[in-house]
Specification:
The complex is a heterodimer of chains A (246) and B (507). Chain A has 12 helices and no strands. With 246 residues, chain A is an all-alpha fold. Chain A has one domain: Up-down Bundle (Fumarate Reductase Cytochrome B subunit). In chain A, helix 5 crosses helix 7 and helix 7 packs antiparallel against helix 9. With 507 residues, chain B is mainly alpha-helical. Chain B has 2 domains: 144 residues, Fumarate Reductase Iron-sulfur Protein, Chain B, domain 2 (Orthogonal Bundle); 257 residues, no CATH class. Chain B is built from 22 helices and 7 strands. In chain B, the strands form 2 sheets. A 4-stranded parallel beta sheet of chain B has the order 2-1-3-4. In chain B, strands 5-6-7 form a 3-stranded parallel beta sheet, sandwiched between helices. The longest helix of chain B is centred in the middle third of the chain and has 19 residues. Classes of the chains: A mainly alpha (246), B mainly alpha (507). At the A-B interface, helix 1, helix 3, helix 5, helix 6 and helix 7 of A face helix 2, helix 3, helix 5, helix 7 and helix 9 of B.
Chain lengths: 246, 507
């Protein structure tokens, strides 16, 4: 067993553990921090099912972003949908036999990588060309785009430029899932791709990628508009009610 | 007096390029000890203010999910960058909502995140320094908490929440804003923002009764502290004397009169506007709100109705139940509280009010959706009632009405430029420049449809427009109250026949 295989195996175990632990910690933090006031951005749904619809529109269609800026919406939505397809397509490297619906999306998933890279390029162009967006960009905002772009391009390189032994890669990941380390091919494109993916998993819970869980906890989007009908009181605020007032 | 240029209104609105630091000089007066201490804040900048500020931030993000989630979630997509009226009017990049949030976020990152602790340069994290605090003081007092950015943010990040937190931190280190804190202290001492004591208020209301009776020959009452009345009206104290606010108050009184309602004002809770919200203080907001509960209990009323006031309606509609409820001692058949527009609208629907629309024929109107009514509240039982109900009232009382462009009204409405604790003369430049997008939209309907007047249901909007209209070439009396239109057009059943009056000159 090569040192390379062991190194990557350990890296992915660590990255997975930190991703899950980090995200769980943040989600726990969001869930336990109270929202003491009703602050839904109105007009807002007046029922819980209405809130589910509102959140679904935000998650699936990026409804608010669509209202705001058509270019950012177009590039952002294209990137996220393409990323989803690509991720689903990658399930084939973790399942044996491959689930039938993963086979079904395989042709779309292959081309989605191009859409993903194109969406990233559009977002990056806005970050550089629009003076307002340039002003608010930190180095980390550019690096995040570089990281995702690197993942997309190295993936495309394996598909269209320098093939790797994909069967062996699959054996490696199936092995990881049963805690047995199988040999990993040492093609540069593959190693770059996997390193960047591990890095993405590591930075996810400590970066702006927290927008993913954040959206579900956003009080302006997830609250029912019913403050007159139902008294809303946070635990720390309820303590004030117990004290005598003037 | 004015040492700044009023922005030019263009044919087509354009998004300005960034002009770094162009509003860095804008700062309201800092509160002196006498205005800080009654609210429970230190009188001057405390010695270890850096640590106090960082600790306060930590405390607040543990108490408000909004703050914690919003500080983490921004991806700097830029969707909000052209949405703030202060950015559009001033070109200062720190008036872009995301950049304003970043003033606080960079400190959050430095002290509370892994990336900011170990790689500050990479993620734009910064230490809590005097420069940062001064920037906060300047730019968190250039946000009117209007929530327009939150409509367009893909994660619903509301800069108002960030501004409120920053102001609360500044209060905690002893760097509060004079305008807000002085006014809150007045409410605690006297009962309203203007510091109008009970005898003066009684006098004012008596004067109004005489004036209205002289004018229309009907004894319309303005009751004060009447025990056993059905309805407690809580209205912004500006309604008692400012123009056009007082014409709105006369309108409410005429509606109550025609409906045969038993109602009263309270001298103890003689203020609807709750400035506790502007400084983001749960405790102060709660303390002010509970005056209304006490007044309602002592007067033994059955219902509470709020007058025309934007931020007040937010606190009333969205927060009052939390702060001062439960309302189990009031009549369960009515929402608590109700907006005066809901009350009037219901009467219109029931056919209980009659209007002579021609009384308002000398005006062609448009309606300004006040920011906090539009994006933080509702009227009626359907989402969006806050847009339709005031318009239905205007259309029931006026013949000539046109809406401003669709992307400047409803949920996308532009703030008047004076909300959120900025309605003070020491921020005049900001107020004039921040009004630009609204003025631009107003100009469109003035030019296209001959609109002559702007109707609003917010005391701040009314005062702000009266002040900034002249800068843009409009008249300071072009702003009117919605219930002023109601008051002008309403036909009171017990009015002396006015056929022999001077109203026959229309033909």
């Amino acid at each position: 067993m090569s040192a390379l295989s062991v190194t990557f195996a350990l890296t992915f175990y660590l990255a997975t553990a930190l991703l899950i632990f980090g995200l769980a910690r943040k989600i726990w933090q969001y869930a336990k921090t109270p929202a003491p006031l009703k602050i839904a951005t109105t007009p807002a749904p007046v029922t819980k099912s209405g809130v589910v619809v509102r959140l679904a529109q935000e998650v699936v269609l990026f409804a608010s972003l669509f209202k705001s800026n058509k270019w950012t919406w177009l590039f952002g939505w294209m990137f996220h949908v393409a990323l989803l397809l690509v991720l689903l397509r990658h399930l084939r490297y973790f399942t044996e036999p491959v689930w039938f619906w993963v086979d079904l999306i395989q042709p779309f998933g292959k081309y989605a990588a191009f859409a993903m890279v194109a969406g990233l390029a559009g977002l990056w162009a806005r970050r550089v060309l629009v003076d307002r967006v340039r002003y608010i960009s930190s180095p980390s905002d550019h690096l995040m785009l570089a990281l995702l772009m690197g993942i997309g391009l190295s993936g495309l390189a394996m598909k269209y430029v320098a093939h790797t032994d994909i069967i062996a890669v699959k054996q490696f990941f199936l092995g990881l899932m049963t805690f047995s380390i199988q040999p990993l091919p040492s093609d540069p494109a593959l190693l770059i791709h996997l390193s960047l993916v591990a890095l993405l998993m590591l930075v996810f819970p400590i970066s702006k990628l927290l927008h993913a869980p954040g959206l579900f906890f956003s009080p302006t989007r997830n609250q029912v508009d019913n403050p007159r009908e139902k008294r809303h009181l946070a635990p720390w605020a309820a303590k004030l009610d117990a004290e005598p007032t003037e | 007096m004015a040492d700044f240029e009023t922005p030019e209104l263009k044919e087509i609105p354009i998004i300005p390029h960034v002009k770094d630091g162009s509003m860095a000089h804008s700062k309201p007066y800092v509160a002196k000890a006498e205005f800080q201490e009654p609210l429970g804040y230190p009188g001057e900048l405390v010695d270890n203010w850096e640590q106090v500020a960082v600790d306060k931030l930590g405390e607040l993000k543990g108490k408000y999910r909004s703050l914690q989630v919003f500080l983490d979630s921004c991806v700097k997509c830029g969707a909000c960058t052209d949405k703030c009226h202060y950015y559009l009017g001033t070109s200062d990049p720190k008036n872009m909502p995301v950049a304003r949030q970043d003033l606080l976020r960079k400190v959050y990152r430095r002290y509370y995140t892994f990336a900011g602790k170990y790689f500050p340069k990479l993620v734009g994290a910064e230490d809590m320094t005097k420069e940062v605090l001064d920037d906060w003081y300047s730019y968190f007092h250039q946000c009117s908490q209007c929530r327009r950015c939150s409509v367009f943010c893909p994660y619903g990040i509301d800069t108002a929440e960030i501004s409120m937190a920053a102001r609360e931190i500044m209060d905690a280190v002893g760097m509060g804003q004079k305008y807000c804190n002085e006014i809150i202290a007045k409410v605690f001492k006297i009962g309203n923002n203007l510091g109008l004591p009970e005898p003066a208020l009684a006098d004012t209301l008596e004067g109004l009764e005489e004036e209205v009776e002289e004018d229309i020959g009907v004894p319309v009452k303005f009751p004060l502290d009447v025990k056993g009345a059905d309805i407690l009206l809580v209205t912004p104290s500006a309604d008692f004397f400012a123009e056009p606010h007082v014409d709105g108050l006369i309108g409410y009184a005429k509606v109550f009169h025609e409906a045969g309602a038993s109602w009263t004002l309270s001298s103890y809770a003689s203020e609807a506007a709750n400035f506790g919200m502007f400084i983001g203080s749960y405790e102060n907001m709660r303390r002010i709100s509970r005056r209304i509960r006490k007044a309602a209990q002592e007067l033994g009323v059955k219902r509470i109705i709020f007058g025309e006031c934007g931020h007040a309606w937010r606190v009333a509609y969205a927060f009052l139940n939390t702060y001062a409820g439960p309302w189990d001692f009031l009549d369960p058949n009515y929402p608590v509280p109700q907006h005066i527009c809901e009350y009037t609208y219901d009467l219109i629907q029931e056919g209980k009010l009659k209007f002579d629309k021609s009384e308002n024929d000398h005006m062609t109107l448009t309606y300004h959706d006040s920011c906090n009514v539009a994006r933080a509240t509702r009227m009626g039982d359907k989402p969006g009632g806050q847009f339709t109900i005031p318009r239905e009232i205007i259309k029931a009382t006026c013949n000539n009405y046109y809406d401003m462009p669709a992307d400047t009204i409803g949920e996308a409405t532009f703030c008047c430029g004076g909300g959120g604790g900025l309605l003070t003369d020491d921020l005049m430049e900001l107020r004039v420049k921040g009004a630009m997008p609204r003025m631009q939209a107003y100009k469109t309907v003035v030019d296209d449809h001959g609109v002559t007047n702007l109707a609003a249901i917010c005391a701040i909007c009314k005062t702000q427009f009266a002040k900034v209209f002249p800068y843009y070439g409009y008249g300071m009396t072009d702003i009117v109250s919605v219930h002023q239109l109601v008051g002008e057009a309403i036909i009171l059943s017990d009015a002396p026949s006015d056929d022999d009056d001077d109203d026959n000159d229309d033909e």
